[in-house]
């Protein structure tokens, strides 16, 4: 069994203290991006591996959650680009009947997701959020669900703060339009 040096042990301890408390938050964000439990778990695992690998570049005591979200978002974009360059592997029309037959048999919600979003958003709200274009959905999720500031989001996504403000404004307006009927069914008026 290999023994860790004092520096390696300290790196592991610092990593555990700074990074691991944010696992639930990055998993929920990954789940919202991928809409698939397995893909979200893979994305989180990839994020944690990269975070550990580059932990020496992280400045202890700074915004670990923001740093992780940026790594996760970059990994998601890189994985998406890589997947989009690969040839199609399965014809959806061939598997659709099978998918529809087993869809009702499985749960698409994890316990963590239920805890985080179960009381906060029902299916109509979640569906409306998922229908937003990805750029708008990501900014709305990071700001309104995760509570990041405009500056933090701009740093995570590597775009100007004005772009964040614009996407958030447009995303909220699109979400408002999606939820107008939902609100009226629950007795809210647009006045």
UniProtKB/TrEMBL annotation:
UniProt keyword list: Sigma factor, Transcription, Transcription regulation
Sequence ranges assigned to domain RNA polymerase sigma factor 70 region 4 type in this UniProt record: 124-173
SUPFAM superfamilies: Sigma2 domain of RNA polymerase sigma factors (SSF88946), Sigma3 and sigma4 domains of RNA polymerase sigma factors (SSF88659)
Entries under Pfam families matching the protein: Sigma70_r2 (PF04542), Sigma70_r4_2 (PF08281)
The organism's place on the tree of life at top rank: Bacteria
InterPro entries per the UniProt record, alphabetical: RNA_pol_sigma-70-like (IPR039425), RNA_pol_sigma-70_dom (IPR014284), RNA_pol_sigma70_r2 (IPR007627), RNA_pol_sigma70_r4_t2 (IPR013249), RNA_pol_sigma_r2 (IPR013325), RNA_pol_sigma_r3/r4-like (IPR013324), WH-like_DNA-bd_sf (IPR036388)
Location of the RNA polymerase sigma-70 region domain: 22-85
Any GO MF annotation of the entry: DNA binding
UniProt KW Plastid keyword: no
Biological process, per Gene Ontology: DNA-templated transcription initiation
Signal sequence coordinates: none
Family per record: Belongs to the sigma-70 factor family. ECF subfamily.
Protein name: Sigma-70 family RNA polymerase sigma factor
Origin species: Natronogracilivirga saccharolytica
